[in-house]
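ugh ok fine here u go
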Amino acid sequence: MSVSLRIGIIGGGGWLGGAIAGSILDSGLVDPQNLCLSYRREQPQRFPDSFWTADSQELADRSDVILLSVRPDDWHPLQVDAAGKLVISVMAGIRLSALSERHKTGRVVRALPNAAAEVAKSYTPWIGASGITGDDRAVVRAIFEACGSEDEVARESDIDYLTGLTGSGPAFPALLAAAMMRDAVAHGLPAEVARRAVNTVISGAGRLLDRSDECPDDVVQAFLDYRGTTAAAIETMRAAGFDASVASGLSAAFKKSVSMGEPS
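structure:
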């Protein structure tokens, strides 16, 4: 992929936009001089060799590829003409048809990276409209492989579902970690010790799963088969409704994803 590609990130001053910018710069996908970022209130003190602007249309005019990294509520009033250009949305809920109509291009993509893009460990599902080309697909893959790993999916509804499952990124493991830490502190462990113990368990599990690429069910079953303390904990958590709670949460996230694409 040529580093002469000009990429613009509307919302490059935000958390996710900045994470994507850092990853594509670190990977060498784009030269700093060919990266343009927009901000709303105050220019961030990051990426000093790139071009910053508060004018989203100016960013679009300077770019070959435009990433939309703003809140859906902030997108609805956004008027940017990107006629004929590749537009990649990383917003929840906004449909391909709406993106194409608003930005005057058939070359539109919906993608959903997560906050782990900051450390190049995001999982990003994406789907393109019928107007994208083979070269466009290569660009999309290169951008999101710089942020971690990616998959092209078959349906927009897959993106809506994965918005909750993977778009939430570290939030779900962090939720489990917070509950574990509270229990440890309630049992008298110092908060520092509890935090270090729990964070190490969570990060270690992630590395093991990443390295072996095992099915999580197989890992759980191995502990169940051992019939030790972990099996006792798993069976009690499941009896208390663990699996049902996760399914309910993901269902709520799916519904929220769809509703976020609708004008308020």
